[in-house]
Amino acid sequence: MFHWHPIRTRRHAFTLIELLVVIAIIAVLAGLLFPVFLTARGKAREIHCLSNLRQIGVSISMYAQDHDGLYPYAVDPADRYTPQIWAGFPEFQAQIPSMSMLHEVLQPYVKSRELFRCPADTGFDVEDFTGLEIDPTGNPRNARPTSYLKFGTSYYYRTEIAARRAGEATFQRPAEVNVLFDGAGAWHGSLLPPVQRYNTVFADGHARNLTRDQLDRVWSMPL
């Protein structure tokens, strides 16, 4: 008698070596794709931030039109909480405690307070340009969790403009006057290689992403 027997297929489990090979392949792919993802997300934040600064630049221009071509007589968190940086200008330094911050002065001219929030803002412990700890409360001395949440703005002012009572009516080269910029270069910078970058809006209204050296150069330009 003929007997039919079904063919049985044997199922093999992954061996340890096969499993390790699969994990290694996944790790390599993740290593290739993760930096691309971070770069794309960082670029999106940079574009959003630059858009914020352009709109704030427009609001500053509107303010100037209402104030004889002069920019706001205002300060930023670094001025307010580390006023010792103005020790060489004692008359201006004495006024800082009673002066409003720039983002407060501009409220009538902006559509939303959110314009002053950089999406890449992760705060900082030491202010980039002074090397000082910002001390609003005594403890902790930092801009955490973000500069926006602690102070109401991610962007910092070239306060020399206020100290010199300058603005559109007085600028020699508006395209070279940095008006407002990121509070920390790490937000749009990189760790490898270590680079600080700052989104910056200029007096003529254009906004650019600058390296620390580029920002230092325009900051040294006369008003």
What keyword list fits this structure?
disordered N terminus, 223 residues, alpha+beta, 7 helices, 4 strands, 4-stranded antiparallel beta sheet, single chain
Give an overview of the whole structure.
Helices cover about 35% and strands about 10% of the residues. About 30% of the residues are buried. It has one domain (about 15-220). The chain has 7 helices and 4 strands, in the order H-H-H-H-H-E-H-E-E-E-H. Strands 1-2-3-4 form a 4-stranded antiparallel β-sheet. Strand 3 (about 195-200) and strand 4 form a beta hairpin. The model is unreliable at about 1-10 and about 30-40 (pLDDT under 50). With about 220 residues, it is of the alpha+beta class.
Number of strands: 4
Overall domain count? 1
Strand content: 5-15%
Number of helices: 7
- How are the strands of the largest sheet arranged? 1-2-3-4
Structural class given helices, strands, pairing? Answer: alpha+beta
The assembly state of the depicted protein chains is single chain
- Which percent range fits the helix content? 25-40%
Separation, N- and C-terminal Cα atoms: 107 Å
Radius of gyration over all CA atoms, rounded? 26 Å
Topology:
Blueprint lengths: L15 H51 L10 H5 L8 H6 L6 H4 L41 H5 L3 E3 L2 H4 L14 E5 L14 E6 L4 E5 H8 L4
Antiparallel strand pairs: 1-2, 2-3, 3-4
Give a nutshell description of this structure:
This protein is α+β, with helices and mostly antiparallel strands and 223 residues long.
